Amino acid sequence: MSILVVGSIALDTVETPLGKVVDSPGGSALFFSAAASFFAPVKVVGVVGEDFDFSIINFLGKKKVDLSGIRVEHGQTFRWGGRYQQNMNIRDTLYTHLNVFESFQPVIPPHYRKCKFVFLANIDPVLQLQVLDNMDSPSLTVLDTMNFWIAGRRQQLMEVIRRVDVIILNDEEIKELTGQYHLQQAAQKLLQWGPRLLVIKKGEHGAVLVSANDYFTAPAYPVNEVVDPTGAGDSFAGGFVGYLATCSRLTDLNFRKAVAYGSTVASFAVESFSFNRLREVSRRQIEQRYEQFRKMTHF
Amino acid sequence: MSILVVGSIALDTVETPLGKVVDSPGGSALFFSAAASFFAPVKVVGVVGEDFDFSIINFLGKKKVDLSGIRVEHGQTFRWGGRYQQNMNIRDTLYTHLNVFESFQPVIPPHYRKCKFVFLANIDPVLQLQVLDNMDSPSLTVLDTMNFWIAGRRQQLMEVIRRVDVIILNDEEIKELTGQYHLQQAAQKLLQWGPRLLVIKKGEHGAVLVSANDYFTAPAYPVNEVVDPTGAGDSFAGGFVGYLATCSRLTDLNFRKAVAYGSTVASFAVESFSFNRLREVSRRQIEQRYEQFRKMTHF
After folding, report:
1. Chain A residue closest to B86 (CA)?
2. Are A215 and B299 an interchain contact pair (Cβ–Cβ within 8 Å)?
3. What is the DSSP letter of A146?
4. Is the minimum CB–CB distance between B124 and chain A shorter than 8 Å?
5. What residues in A contact B270, CB-CB < 8 Å?
6. Is the Cβ of B298 closer than 8 Å to some Cβ of chain A?
7. What is the pLDDT of residues A232-261, one digit of tens each?
8. N or C: which end of chain B has fewer CB within 10 A?
């Protein structure tokens, strides 16, 4: 089954204690695509400026990511600069130049509309609603968002939440969204608003899946060295939705496996800057780590 | 197999967003005993003042905890007062009156010396060494410690570490002890110092077990309401060592199960103040939650 992703395409300048990259490809739509394309065909909707060199994402085309929904607008590509502190859990944003992304209007090409899986990456909820309105009849819609929209576009975000099947959030975001400190209570409150299922990302502490009838915890894979955490969340989402797009039925067990695949793919993503690791890793290596992951939690 | 525990016995005054108790029984030795006694006989070494009313720990005697190693010294019992903030992960110590605990010298009664399992709760490493010197030939020795001893008694603590089989620490402590930020690297460094196995407690994020040939992660059980986290770490240790004391062999799998039992018992401990929940829960309830715990992590 094909997957649609709508999100940002950026040129990231990232500094971590282990190195630095300048204007390397990033953004939620690309990280998601790189991760999801291990499992299923992906179609991207996004925007770049005239300065964008498509050759730097050639590898996505080779992985059957459909880039025809990326529009080139007059101006510069979205640029983000950030620096991670020693412990890698804290990052300082050095600059955010939205450029052409500021006036992004997602246009869904006709041949994208039949995608059965939809990932609404972290963009303005107003745009996320437009995307939902333009899809034929998706089997599964998955939402990501962030504090900025929770605080500034609450009403529209609530409408998206009512309409999607799955929400992926981090632990801070779900607390802010629901006003509940206690994660279990926050999750229960959010489920009452409509989604079938929540995935709460806890960074180095793994992820939790909560639905009306299931509760599942997955650790983070213990990578030897985190080189760059940028894109980990979108890579997780890519592995998660990607695996689900291969399933004939969306059972509780398959959602659990999808969380484990998401964690597995994210664990590769952080092992190098930008897409460097996701570009070289094979599906076989993903399966091997997924098996190690399973063994890590068995008792 | 019998378990020896040497640690503190305290009267705790604890305030959390959900209530308050005054001078209720606590301390590492008692929390450990309450937890371990679900599984195996426990023998306690500790000290109290003349003001200590043994009737408040009657229930431990009924659970076959041998209290004959508790000495009554002239003076007042150790008292601790603390207040937890809204999110329960931060606590402020209001006072620490060591009283008779300040000059505590563990005396191991002769009938305690053949205990095959030894838990050295969080006390001065100098005293922990004395305890080790006074045991016949334990099968498994388990160490707990804290930042105070890591900073102030490093040399003696290192000697204890060289002599024990298992160390239980939280994530902050292992980083401070090894000077390594990255948890995996910190664990590898600590293992080189002698212990066979480490258990890293991560509070609401669960626990990780690391040995030369095993890596296991367990989540925390998602309790509906954390009423009082005091004693959670010692209850975890009690469930962990308690389960091991029932095993005919100390295999990797049994260590994993022990972590899960530790987490299970700790999850009950935090559901009420002091020992209130551990006192009423049954072994059957522990088994039921342990099974839920297993299901929570299966995929």
Report:
1. A181
2. no
3. -
4. no
5. none
6. yes
7. 999 999 999 999 999 999 999 999 999 999
8. N
Residues of A in contact with B18 (CB under 8 A): none
In this prediction, residues B277-299 reach a mean pLDDT of 95
Measured between beta carbons, the chain A residues lying within 8 angstroms of B223 are: 184
The shortest CB-CB distance from A222 to any of B184, B222, B297 is to B184
CB spacing of B225 vs A182 below 8 angstroms = yes
Read off the amino acid at residue A293: F
**CATH number of the domain encompassing residue A67:** 3.40.1190.20
Quick check: A89 pLDDT over 80?
A: no
Reported in sequence order, the residue ranges of chain A that DSSP labels E, i.e. its strands, are: 3-6, 10-16, 19-26, 42-49, 65-73, 78-84, 91-97, 117-120, 140-144, 166-170, 197-201, 207-211, 214-218
pLDDT band at A22 (very low <50, low <70, confident <90, very high): very high
* Contact across the interface for A215 and B202, Cβ inside 8 Å: no
Half-sphere exposure of residue B46: CA atoms within 13 angstroms, side-chain side: 33
**Rounded distance, CA A225 to CA A222, Å?**
9
Give the rounded distance of the alpha carbon of A241 from its chain centre. Answer: 9
Q: Is B206 on the interface with A (CB under 8 A)?
A: yes
Q: Hey, are the CB atoms on A296 and B204 less than 8 Å from each other?
A: no
3-state helix, strand, coil in chain A (%, to 5): 40, 25, 30
A184 contacts in chain B (CB < 8 Å): 222-224
How, if at all, do strands A207-211 and A214-218 pair? antiparallel
Give how many domains chain B has, as a whole number.
Answer: 1
Give residue-wise pLDDT tens across range A194-234: 999 999 999 889 999 999 999 999 999 988 889 999 999 99
User: With 80 as the cut, is the pLDDT of residue B218 above it?
Assistant: yes
**Res A87: pLDDT:** 76
Q: How many whole angstroms separate alpha carbon B233 and alpha carbon B254?
A: 20
> Whose CA is closest to B290, among B149, B185, B281?
B281
* A201 contacts in chain B (CB < 8 Å): none
Only one residue has tokens 């992304």, namely: A101
Which domain covers residue B176, as residue numbers?
3-297
Residues of B within 8 A of A86 (CB-CB) are 181
pLDDT at B122 over 80: yes
Supply the pTM of this predicted model.
0.89
State what percent of residues in chain A have pLDDT above 90: 93
User: Chain B: nearest CA to A128, how far in angstroms?
Assistant: 31
